[in-house]
Amino acid sequence: MGKDGWSLANNINVARERPGEPVLKRRTFRLAGRGGPQDSVGMQLQIEYPDSLPDLLQTTRPQFEAEARMAMAVKLFERQRLPSGLAARLAGVSRVEFLLTLHRYGVPMIDLDEAELRDVQHA
């Protein structure tokens, strides 16, 4: 497990979808971590994807997996399911780096509606 409490494990599964079809290689990456010192239960998410997917996207396997983790963290942050600190941990980056990356996904750092914006301006 990394110093931030998260680790990444990879395995390759080889299986046939149906008898007689060619063998498909699928790569699985698993994100595991702990919520903090008070949380003794680890979390784990396993995602299977075709072994050729990173090549099709013209990227390396570690780059693809980092991008997938970031995309998931950004979406959960955007939907207000995770605060920025936890989303950053999920993505495997610092909170500052996470917040500075949000613009690449078209997600605002701070999402205020008109009423909230007026309140901030008048404060």
Short description:
The protein is an alpha+beta fold.
Task: Describe this protein's structure.
This protein is 37% helix and 26% strand. By secondary structure, the protein is α+β, with helices and mostly antiparallel strands. The chain has a 3-stranded antiparallel sheet, with no helix packed on it. β1 and β2 (23-34) form a beta hairpin. It is elongated. It starts with 5 loop residues before the first strand and ends with a helix. The relative contact order is 0.12.
Helical amount among residues, as a percent range? 25-40%
Q: Enumerate the spans where pLDDT stays under 50 for 5 or more consecutive residues.
A: 1-16, 34-41
Query: Could you tell me the strand content as a percent range?
Result: 25-35%
Strand count, sense and barrel status of the largest sheet are: 3 strands, antiparallel
Count of discrete alpha- or pi-helical segments spanning 4 or more residues: 5
| Total domain modules | 1
Order of helices and strands: EEEHHHHH
**How many DSSP-defined strands?**
3
Instruction: Give the N-to-C terminal Cα separation.
Output: 44 Å
Taken from the alpha-carbon principal axes, the silhouette is: elongated
